[in-house]
């Protein structure tokens, strides 16, 4: 009996022991599996390169990257490798996007417009950039992306008792959203007056935060960058040279890169301007009060500090967009890297076009015509301004024309059709049709305008009186012949500032 009971107890103890071993192994496996899963999670989660939350640091020092260090976590090098694309972007969207890791995009906006312009940028090409910076006239956050205040370090004596900064202080008192607070304000001029103080401070902050990029590309929030063009072009230039390039514009005797077109500054130029210096932009705060524009002030300051002047790269850096570009023989085969004044729908359309092209090659201006303008080409459009302004035909017995119209008016040697072109839209059309150089025409308020280039233009509000309506027409047959004659472009692109070897 005793031996039987002993055997039963021994058997029960053995079963219990085996069950305990299995339970312990399962717990260990569960613990290991959980750690393994977390390791995979951290492997796919990239640092938020877009956000740049540097609230606990100066502008000069980039935020340290915080990485957990258990043995089963990724190393810092592995995480850095995965930081080249936003994980919020579908792989299919960015898989063929070019490598922009040597160019820092620096975008300028304003608090009153940021929520209407920046979101479209974030869901198009910006989502494929490894890093970018956005500056405004107030610190904000859009969809988790930080927008920096570019004006927080403008000298206090310049800010105070300066009407240019009325909007800067008022928008900080807004108890609702900025759009609601500004809807009853005449904000356009205020925004322009404030904007001119941004460019220099943005450049200094951008360099102090990220001093090691080869190139710094400064654009407005309404701009579109054609990255395949920009990358191919800048690879042919040297960031070790002191370079400042953009669409050259003049104000008096001063020349500068138009900020709307975007301008590019090399690392060498940025270092010569800002490295080992402090409060550089403040040196021109007071002078900015007496000038019109921030892009002008950047050029003046850069010239004074380093001797570097702007190199003209129009039409590759371009302030127009597909519907307002002048499609001429001079521009037709040229590469295009930037455009401006684009709404959200236009940004999306351009991004979709580049996706169709698989971001594979530089874009030429003619490509924009074929994709955006040619499908919309019609003989005429009412309530439309097609920007035909190369020459005007006027009724000189009237005295209601502005200086621009008078400067471009043809006053001598007029044919009978040209003499009557100002009488009506039909008269304007007939005069254009017999002029071999006239590709399109426009009629408004007794003025007939011809254009020697192709322009699509934009709609106009319908006027109550027929005589006040904007009417536009295109000589479709002549345009199609012109396009066919000019559509062959040399395979070798003529890049701005690049000397093509002659054979």
From TrEMBL:
Region described as Disordered: 38-71
Gene3D superfamilies from the UniProt entry: 3.90.550.50
GO cellular component, one term: membrane
Recorded topology in the membrane: Single-pass type II membrane protein
Similarity comment: Belongs to the glycosyltransferase 31 family. Beta3-Gal-T subfamily.
Keywords: Membrane, Signal-anchor, Transmembrane, Transmembrane helix
Organism whose genome encodes this protein: Trichoderma gamsii
Protein name (record): Glycosyltransferase family 31 protein
